[in-house]
Amino acid sequence: MSSSVDTKKVLGTPLKINGVVIKNRIILGPMAVLRPTGEGRPSGQTIAFLTRRARGGVGLIIVGGSVCSDRGWNESPFTPLLRFDREDFVEDIKRLTDAVHECGTPLFAQLFPSFGRMGVPRNGVSILAASPKSVRLGSGGLPPNIYVPGGHISPLPEEADVAQIKALQDRVVEAAGRVKRAGFDGVEIGAHMCYFYSSFLSPLSNKRTDEYGGSAESRARILRDLVAAIREEVGPDYPIGLRMSVNDHMPGGQGPEGFAEVAAHIVPAGLDFISLSEGNYESMRDNVPSVSGTMLAHGEPQAFRRAVGKDVRLFLSSTPNPTQAATAINDGHVEASMLARQMLADPDYASKVLEGREHEIVWCDHANSCLRGLILNAPVTCHKNREMGQEDPSAQRPKPLQKIGVWAAGNRFVMGAIDVIAGIVQRNR
Predict the structure, then answer these.
(1) 372-405: per-residue pLDDT in tens?
(2) CB contact at 8 A, 380 and 373
(3) How many angstroms separate the CA atoms of 112 and 339, rounded?
(4) Alpha carbon of 395 to those of 97, 147, 400: distances in Å?
(5) Residue 164: pLDDT above 60?
(6) Strand partners, 159
(7) In CA terms, which of 152, 216, 276, 290 is 20 to 30 Å from 420?
(8) ∠ at Cα 49 (389, 393), nearest 5°?
(9) Is residue 1 pLDDT above 50, yes or no?
């Protein structure tokens, strides 16, 4: 590891991702905090939130909290979401991309087909995954200040058949062409946490015996085929990336070398970058760490670099300490630092880092009220940043009962009492 690094210089260096050049190495990661309209169109708050971070100096914005299939819209546990599956929404989406481009910032769209093991069966439609395996939420530990009384086990998904896999692939490819026409500068496929594509990547959730299960090469097939199809749709110069898990952090799960081996089979289909995502809903404590640099400490970017080579851009997650991120870039482990919660607490984080004003950064304290709001489908706010969620003055505010719910969900005494009551009720049934 480098003994010293010029943090401003390293993080301020432009980066080329296929045909797109970003001005620095600090990326706003995808989050479901954009508050689009009930229909799924970008709202004034959606645009205001993103342009505020663009003005704050980030080099790239990846827009998440979105779906690109009717299935995804129907089964979403979070509402509302942006819809990339509707052709009649293109002009609305273009208003979003135009506004961010006016700030001089490129943006990529996260293509998210289905919620997989975390989906909610609705309207008579079952949820799909690689194999019929539920999620035991937080069974490997929950982050600080998040409590789930009695635990939670997701509905059992059905095993997706080949026809269903191909149908979802078609929807994602169509969405890639659609968001390109709407002005997005690149796309990222969502294959992380416990969602549909991620369920194929690890033996922990993939028990299939057909061409999509078994070896690392077979488990990579679904994404290798998808990347190749998107590449044919968008052309050679358009950035295509993948957000994927790098470590299950669960007994019997897959570690970084296994995930990296899967990634190495996907890359030749035309992949330009990989956004590294640690853990999943069953190991949320590792997915939402309270200290900076855990991914580096676990050796996960290093394993991916060895497996995929130097031509694929790697985005580091959960490392708000700018010197740690710059050192990882300088040492060749990754090419950029991608942040989420820290960007809620301080939308000017990038500018402050690049201008040598780190002492002015408003640091995320990992109280995770933002995550509790997301879980409860309340407008997400941040107690470290009163502007968060109100970047557009007309944005919906949390209702009093929602505020109480968000507070209670982070209070271990209240949640502990509910847990005891739930246990008594269960035993007396």
Answers:
(1) 888 888 889 999 999 999 999 989 888 888 888 8
(2) yes
(3) 19
(4) 19, 28, 15
(5) yes
(6) 129
(7) 290
(8) 55
(9) no
Each residue of 256-274: pLDDT tens digit?
999 999 999 999 999 999 9
The amino acid sitting at 418 is I
Helix (H) or strand (E) segment spanning residue 46: helix 44-55
> What is the SS3 string spanning 197-246?
HHHHCCCCCCCCCCCCCCCHHHHHHHHHHHHHHHHHHHCCCCCEEEEEEC
Helix 162-181 vs helix 216-234: angle between axes, to the nearest 10 degrees? 40
How does the average pLDDT of the chain come out, rounded?
Answer: 93
Nearest CA to 319 out of 298, 282, 294 is that of: 294
Closest CA to 373 of 348, 404, 352: 404
Residues 313 and 326: their CA atoms lie apart, in Å, by 15
Domains and CATH numbers, the chain: 7-427 (3.20.20.70)
Beta bridge partners of residue 62, listed in sequence order: 108
Concatenating the DSSP letter of every residue in 371-391 gives HHHHHTTPPP-BTTBTTTT-S
